[in-house]
Amino acid sequence: MITKTVLIKDTTPGSTSGTKEFFDVFTAALRESKLADEIRLVRAADIGVYNHGIVLKILPDNITYANVQHHDIKRIIGVTLKHGNPIKDLLYQPRAYQLRLVLKNCGRIDPESIDDYIAHDGYRALSAALQAGPDTVIREITASGLRGRGGGGFPTGLKWSMTRSTPGNEKYMICNADEGDPGAYMDRSVLEGDPHAVIEGMLIAGFAIGASQGYFYIRAEYPLAIERVQKAIDQAHAYGLVGERIFGSDFSMDLEIRLGAGAFVCGEETALIASIEGKRGTPSPRPPYPSVKGLWGKPTCINNVETLANVPSIIRNGSAWFSRIGTENSKGTKVFAVTGKVRNSGLIEVPMGTTLRDIVFEIGGGTASGKRFKAVQTGGPSGGVIPEHLLDTPVDYDNLQKLGSIMGSGGMIVMDEDDCMVDIAKFYLKFCVDESCGKCAPCRIGGYQMLNLLENISRGNATLEDLERLRLIAKAMQKASLCGLGQTAANPVLSTLRYFEDEYREHILNRRCPSKKCTALLQFIIDRSRCKKCGLCARSCPEKAITGDKEHGYTIDTARCINCGMCFETCKFGAVERN
Amino acid sequence: MIIATINGIPVHVAEGTTILEAARQVQVKIPTLCHHPDLPPTAACGICIVKVQGSNKMLRACCTPIEEGMNILTHDPEIVEVRRTVLELILSNHPNDCLKCGRNQSCELQNLAAAFGIREELFPKFISGIPKDDSTNAFVIDPDKCIHCGRCIEICQELQQVWALSFLGRGFSSRFAPAAGMRLVESPCVECGQCSSHCPTGAIFELDETVKVWQKLQDPDNYCVVQIAPSVRVAIGEAFGMPPGTNMTGKLYTVLRRLGFKAVFDTSFAADVTVME
Amino acid sequence: MAALTADDLAAIASRIHDQNASWIRVGMSTCGIAAGAERVYAALEDELQRQGAGVQLKKCGCLGMCAAEPLVEVNIAGMPRVIYCRVDEACARDIVRGHVCGGKLLQDYIIDMQSEDAS
């Protein structure tokens, strides 16, 4: 009869056989103690703990031991497995926990079943809100300290009360699901995994501001999210939770989906409204703000998916419960899409105030390659890079802004020493240049000029004055662009300049890319001593720039070489060097 | 009534007045480029930015309503530097063919560059090289000279309700063009001329046939006659600095004869008949 | 049907809540599907039928560990509730034969994370 299960994982960096070895030793020890029939040993693929040697998790006691040595096995068997007592000095104390609030139901409930959602406290908040009345709802949301999760961080309660206090019989509620940052997909996962939570949030918000119609603005590139939200709306409609006289009250609200055609700028609220109205998706000047004059000229409230997904929990558990989580000015949790050169790319949800180091190393598991961490980009193309020495900064809206980045919608891209900061700046700026609507001059022309300057730097065709030009244009874009896209498009350039100016100067003054990323600055040569004369490089070269034969070895004709790097990738012996 | 200050000068204006209008009332000049008094602000160019005390943001004066108690600063080194950079950026995307341009000496961009004392180019030039559209007998469209102020589109779509012009594409490759990228002659354009009369640069201008007329007049094998529209007798006076409404019929006939026309026909009688009908 | 009342919510919840039921959940968000969750789901469905195991097979959204998709969470009465990662069709069949029918946890596929739920 099996009473306990022990999960085993060797989390030592670079270790490949540690888990298996420990497993075998432990198995033998159990047999010796005559516990082999009672304790089940299992090698885990990933135990959620990193760089802590051998880690054991004992179920059902839920005890985790870290840095376990072979000589600890006896104690563990005797104390914990036989008697269920924890061993204090082995206990693993996680520095950082994920706290699942928005993602609570994601991966736990069937997103296509409204009953499953209802079984997980679904639509109770709506029922409670309808009884409490709009003023109480707005008061609760305001007291909770919830701020917009789309990136701006505007207080949600204030937005609602502004829309509510604008006179008008017709008001609109819009859910902004036009998520477009490279590498960010928090909203997609929430819509796919828990669509009813967002619908419930929409209905509560609509009730609070006095709207009778709500729109989901979802980008067309999210077909599964669209399908599941539509299904969820239909199910809610069938239950009378969307439509006329919800829960038998006087409140009626309909929901519809509008598809975005994939323009990043349509995440900006005035451009989003123009897009729903069927116009060209370009921003217009604010004021008037949408809360005064929005969709079809009526007062409109626009909230991000994650913001709305927070709402039902706040109403259900109260503002005091919510505001206990997080920091002074940033309450609650934040979902991040951690991607790039990180071991566990995926979605995480942490309380505001968790440090970047904990996110990247404790939860993310550090770099995937094991190479040195260089920086993390937050806020997508509107944010900036944060270097290693600032990793202990607790994440909240204000702190990230001070560092020259922003919270943004939650994209977090980890970079290791192979990433060139000029290249990174170029990547993000290129994104904004491609996505600029072209309306205002600073963004349209400024972005293009900056991209051209960066291109010159990465080719070694720049001067130090070009850095000043970059700063000059960046300032004009920040100050004189009409919308958030243009105002923040220069952030990646400015933040890489701020923390990694050395790298820029190295490109300009010495025509060298320290990360060996900017191929135009590299020179490929074959190291004769390591070359095995296999000829693979010569066959891979698209320009036939590698000559020689299997007898005499091979050389690269640098005049013909186009620096594509194919030979470097192909060589199995590390004989191709790039400098 | 709203009370605020601009560069320390108190202003009293009606609610809804923009910062730009308020500044003009107290003789403070904020430079503008895309703004046109006939049209709602498109807020495109970013030249008219100003600061409000207590905020490090810069606001567009053309479209921001002035608020009670605002302390507005229209000029300081930072504001002027940003304006100048924006202007330099616009110029980097504009061909330098002023001498050959239909809008030479009546160009708002040229005037602004002169006002900022631009003598050399700070940024490399990038011109899209989109071909001109001279498919109609009325206008020539030269997209390379467009500064994306959006006036022509605003007036074509919202005021005239014709919808012949629109923006196409996005980012650096966005351009104004007859709807859906067709040629102007195939578009719904009715040749009303509002776009060209509101264009600040040479991006849309009237087809100029003066040279052709001179050639015909000077050709001894040609017998040239001229017929004038009723409005020209008055309009031409304004062009020569006369007070609006001055009747120039006699002078006009004489001038046309001196230019070499063998006969001058006047449409005014036919116009009167039309009116009587 | 007629509009729901607040009491109906509780009725639906208690109908759904059956803590003791055995179930298997497959993460079927874009990340899971891209990694092959649909094939895994089909394999589980087929193998459950072959073995005649009375286990509920369900779809769910993304747990967050996208790099380790497809994820399959298994809850069988009397066994610890575990999540298997990087599951392929062969592994899916092993889950049914080994874990569901044989009472054994699979080696080298279990994934765990340090998290807790708010509320």
Give a short synopsis of this structure.
Chain B has 277 residues and is an alpha+beta fold.
- State which percent range the strand residues of chain B make up: 15-25%
Q: Any idea of the CATH class of chain C? A: Alpha Beta
Strand content of chain C: 15-25%
Q: Any idea what the CATH architecture of the largest domain in chain B is?
A: 2-Layer Sandwich
Instruction: Give the averaged pLDDT of chain C, no decimals.
Output: 88
- The overall pLDDT average of chain B reads 93
Describe the biggest sheet of chain C?
Answer: 5 strands, mixed
Could you characterize what this model shows?
The complex is a heterotrimer of chains A (579), B (277) and C (119). Chain A has 579 residues and is of the alpha/beta class. Chain A folds into five domains: 4-90, Glutaredoxin (3-Layer(aba) Sandwich); 114-322, NADH-ubiquinone oxidoreductase 51kDa subunit (Rossmann fold); 333-416, Ubiquitin-like (UB roll), CATH 3.10.20.600; 421-509, Up-down Bundle (de novo design (two linked rop proteins)); 522-578, Alpha-Beta Plaits. Helices cover 39% and strands 17% of the residues of chain A. Chain A has helices spanning 18-32, 73-83, 114-119, 124-132, 134-144, 156-165, 186-193, 195-209, 223-238, 269-276, 305-317, 319-323, 356-363, 397-402, 421-435, 441-458, 464-480, 484-489, 491-509, 536-540, 566-570, and strands at 4-10, 39-46, 54-59, 63-68, 98-100, 172-177, 213-219, 254-260, 300-304, 333-340, 346-351, 373-378, 384-387, 411-416, 524-526, 546-549, 553-556, 576-578. In chain A, a hairpin with a 5-residue loop joins strand 12 and strand 13 (384-387). Chain A is flat. The mean pLDDT of chain A is 92. With 277 residues, chain B is of the alpha+beta class. Chain B folds into three domains: 2-75, Ubiquitin-like (UB roll) (Roll); 129-206, Alpha-Beta Plaits (2-Layer Sandwich), CATH 3.30.70; 210-276, Rossmann fold (3-Layer(aba) Sandwich). Chain B has helices at 19-25, 77-92, 108-115, 151-159, 194-198, 210-218, 232-239, 249-259, 268-276, and strands spanning 2-6, 9-13, 49-52, 58-60, 71-73, 139-141, 165-168, 175-178, 204-206, 225-228, 263-266. The longest helix of chain B has 16 residues, at 77-92. The N and C termini of chain B lie far apart (50 Å). The mean pLDDT of chain C is 88. In chain C, helix 3 runs parallel beside helix 4 (89-101). Chain C has one domain (19-111): Glutaredoxin. Chain C has helices at residues 6-16, 30-35, 37-51, 89-101; strands at 23-27, 56-60, 72-75, 82-84, 110-111, 115-117. Chain C contains four helices and six strands. Chain C has 119 residues and is of the alpha+beta class. Chain A binds chain B through residues 263, 265, 280, 282, 284-285, 287, 433-442, 444-449, 452, 469, 472-473, 475-476, 479-482, and chain B through 41-47, 49, 57-58, 60, 63-65, 78, 81-83, 85-86, 89-90, 92-93, 122-124, 126, 147-148, 150, 166-167, 169-174. Strand 5 (98-100) of chain A pairs parallel with strand 6 of chain C.
